[in-house]
Amino acid sequence: MEFVDLQDRLLFGIPKKGRLNEQVMTLLQGADIQFHRKNRIDIALSTNHPIALVFLPAADIAQFVANGNVDIGITGQDMVAEAGANVEELLALGFGKCKLCVQAPVDSPYKSAKDLVGKRIATSFSSLVGKVFQELDAEAAKAAGLKQVENPTLVQFLSGSVEASCALGLADAIVDLVESGETMHAAKLHAIETILTTEAVLICNPNKHKTNPLIEKIKRRIEGVIVAQRYVLCTYNVPRSQMAEAVKITPGKKAPTISALETDGWVAVSVMVLKSKAADVMDALEEIGAQDILVTEIKNARMG
Ligand SMILES: Nc1ncnc2c1ncn2[C@@H]1O[C@H](COP(=O)(O)OP(=O)(O)OP(=O)(O)O)[C@@H](O)[C@H]1O
Ligand SMILES: O=P(O)(O)OC[C@H]1O[C@H](OP(=O)(O)OP(=O)(O)O)[C@H](O)[C@@H]1O
């Protein structure tokens, strides 16, 4: 096998497959981190930065970053919590958003996690869930005036297809991720408690952030890509008399840029607007007499 020289390169852990992979690839492209990944090789050298991309299971990235095996990485906050990893969260990325929920069969009597003390729980998050039920067991014991409960809750690890475990008789309830709820409903389960909400994050080894300026550069670039994905640029002309109203509709991230027009009594405004609100904003601007309202895509951004 060819030897890959990683010396002097920042090691960047990237989810090698699964839910986060595609969006991370888009971020890298937007941040102009170029690389060529040979077929099935999990380390790719960047061709325009001293960076090596290390393709890893999302579940391992937090621990790898905490241990300093890689310097930075992208994974879910759920994975960081499950690993109990000591990492610095540099940036929330706005995708991979879901909730880690306790789910019970819809026809079961369980209404909250407390009702499951002493029962069997299947999950891929056995460390996190183990801690939650240890606490619930301890609370139940205390309430009953005991040192510990007779039947501690059994938390079993499953690496996948967790939602099938109640129907299979393996567990009384599960703890798994929920986004649309489709998987949960299809398995005739319902959420009875949320353990955490999560999204994808850029993380860094706490000792590396200050020592390598490239980390801050990558963070700023990725931040720019995210802003560009989320916002559009809106420009319009509006009578000066309506300027205060216009600023209320489009306050901008900091403030709108306003310049005088040659035509007396009019100003030109340039301002960032959330992509999801752009159509409503255009309607509202039109209603107060704004003209020549244009909305354009932002390719990239650097914010103050
Ligand atoms: N339905 C979902 N919606 C949004 N984000 C999700 C969803 N499922 C998982 N995620 C996020 O993506 C991360 C990786 O989940 P994924 O299921 O892709 O795991 P994986 O281990 O990378 O892949 P695989 O399950 O294929 O082995 C999760 O830790 C979570 O942060
Ligand atoms: O609420 P939903 O939108 O249905 O999403 C939730 C599902 O998504 C994840 O699994 P994924 O589809 O990534 O496959 P996996 O079970 O192989 O991890 C998670 O483990 C749930 O099963």
Automatic annotation (TrEMBL):
Keyword entries, A-Z: Amino-acid biosynthesis, ATP-binding, Cytoplasm, Glycosyltransferase, Histidine biosynthesis, Nucleotide-binding, Transferase
Compartment(s) where it occurs, according to its Swiss-Prot or TrEMBL record: Cytoplasm
UniProt entry tagged with the keyword Kinase: no
Pfam families, per database record: HisG, HisG_C
GO molecular function, one term: magnesium ion binding
Superkingdom to which the source organism belongs: Eukaryota
Pathway: Amino-acid biosynthesis; L-histidine biosynthesis; L-histidine from 5-phospho-alpha-D-ribose 1-diphosphate: step 1/9
Name of the protein in question: ATP phosphoribosyltransferase
A GO biological process held by the record: L-histidine biosynthetic process
Naturally occurring in which organism (per UniProt): Rhizoclosmatium globosum
InterPro entries in alphabetical order: ATP-PRT_HisG_long, ATP_PRibTrfase_cat, ATP_PRibTrfase_CS, ATP_PRibTrfase_HisG, HisG_C, N-reg_PII-like_a/b, N-reg_PII/ATP_PRibTrfase_C
Boundaries of every ATP phosphoribosyltransferase catalytic domain copy: 58-224
Residue span(s) of domain Histidine biosynthesis HisG C-terminal: 228-300
EC class name: transferase
E.C. numbers: 2.4.2.17
Catalytic activity: 1-(5-phospho-beta-D-ribosyl)-ATP + diphosphate = 5-phospho-alpha-D-ribose 1-diphosphate + ATP
Family under the similarity heading: Belongs to the ATP phosphoribosyltransferase family.
Cellular component aspect of the GO annotation: cytoplasm
